[in-house]
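Possible regression after last week's pipeline update?

I re-ran a chain I had predicted before the update to compare outputs. Posting the input and the new output here so someone can diff against the archived version. Not blocking, just want to make sure nothing changed silently.
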Amino acid sequence: MRGIFKRRSGIVSPVDSDWLQTHTGSDRLISLVGSPEKHIVLATVGETLTSDTLSLDQNYKDNSLFIASGRLDNRDFLCKALNIPLSLGRKMDDTALMQAAYRMFGDDTPEQLLGDWIFAAYNPHRNELFLAQNHHGYGALYYYVDEEQYIFSSSLKHLLAHPKIPKEIDLKQVVARDIIVFGLEPDATFFKSVKLLNPAHTMRIGRTSHHKERYWSPETITPDPNITADDAAEEMRQRFTEAVQARLRSDGPVASMLSGGLDSGSVVTMAAALLKQEGERLSTFSHIPAYNLSDLDIGSLTGNERPNIEATAGIHTNITTHFLDSSHLTPLQGIRMLNDILCEPVHAAHNAYWLIDIFQQAKHMGHRVLLSGEMGNATISFTGIPYQLGFRETYLRYGLRGIVRKKLLQPLYRHTKGRWKQYTHPHAWQEYSYINPMLEGEVHPSRLIRQSGRPIDFNYHFASHTDAMLQTLMPGYNPRLRFGYELGQHFGLEFRDPTGDKRIVEFMLRVPNRLFINQKGGTKQMLKRMMQGRLPDRVLYQKSSGLQSADIVKRIQPDLPEIEEIIRNFSTDLYEGELFNRQRMLSDLQLLKIFKLNTGQTNHLLRSVGIMEFLNSYKWHTHCD
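New output (post-update):
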């Protein structure tokens, strides 16, 4: 979805029209609405959302314009609210239904819609453009605004292809990404001139001004102390079933990511059961190591989750598993491909190769939808926070010693340790970042970390269990939502995550902390109640977490000569000195060559290398080609 709105004078030029009709990603059909004489043209693209959900209409009697893209999950509710007979409404595509909703509700429409969607509406009477994005689903909207025009696109790569948009890199965002800080400026991108319209936000654009507004704030939800464990588990099961069911609507085969963990396992188990009722199958794609892990130090984590994956898939006879070791892609190739697709370096650069492989294989096998469970840690499989239990609940679970340990000693230790490290080790970010320490005098990494509210050593002490959930969810901002959207669009897939469904998020925030922790101190009890008898016990009660890219230390070895060249030759005019501590990077690279760098340190190194590669691409190119 894309558009150009001339704010003051002039017409949409041939250059603008060419940009509007440029194809990106998979082959798509471009449809235009509006006219140069009206100073506005909007375009929608034949994206890969279900085939009956994408249309474009210019049939308003008042010549209003409306374009949209997405999936609606509350179609029956909208039909009733709009007085549309269900027999007719169920035949309407999602965009036509969104358009009808906008006619009825106007700028309040976003609050009435459920699903993953974005839309733009132009009101000629007010000469105003209105944009909106869904509550907490996959989607993206980027924009550039100057005195003459407002240009927007759901693809950063496509937006940057417009010749009038400056491509200057924002140094602060580069540093923030390397020191693992998110959300300081929620609408910022790596490009100074490009901003974001984030999830749960709308924007109104007029001739002389534009105004953003957030319409959904789950931070205001408080736990219900009266809810019982049985009632909570039943409502959670109902909402989760609805969320999965809504994401199975597709004009082609559905697939899902599947690790050996609880979140993707729950999604797959529920999806397979629902598809079985329709006589349909579910394909799963799982990443597994390509190298032996026996001589690698991965601590108590599980590096190869294949046994758990097979146990989960064995629950239903309509699941077809695909195990991918991604040996044909090197980590460096994956980093370069992901940088090119997103036009932005990612935090978990070490996972790029297998993410690319899963999307490639799912597309190659003809799937239209790829499910995930990446928001599950903050919703369905939330652990609970033991130290936030009340004294009575703590005593019942852990006894008197538990009260002393969890309510007194542990909080005191965390607080004291955090304060001590904050004042005695203000530059502790250098343990996981290769940014040059000299930048403390210009960009102030330590200050950025303090402003973000993130402990410098990641040792969080949350004021409440809901704060912990929100820390992971990042409502109104979460960058994973746009990354997943753009990755899916590039490969001609729609990425969908039922664990991040608005209804589930709101409900889980209402669940009191005590219900996540059983009488023996076991955590993740909400999911275990919901999935008891549905997931195999070895998965449901596993004690070891899985480790992504567990063999990265071995897998990266063929890339090391080229990585060394990247580090040695890197230069940028973003900073007058060295942007990265290249000496330290080269020293750690030598340790990596002899397997003396552990998995976590290797991941940090690759994050910085990924940023270097991203900056190198913009040193020679004005936009992503």
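Follow-up from reviewer: compared with the archived run. The two ends are 19 Å apart (CA to CA). Marking as no regression found.
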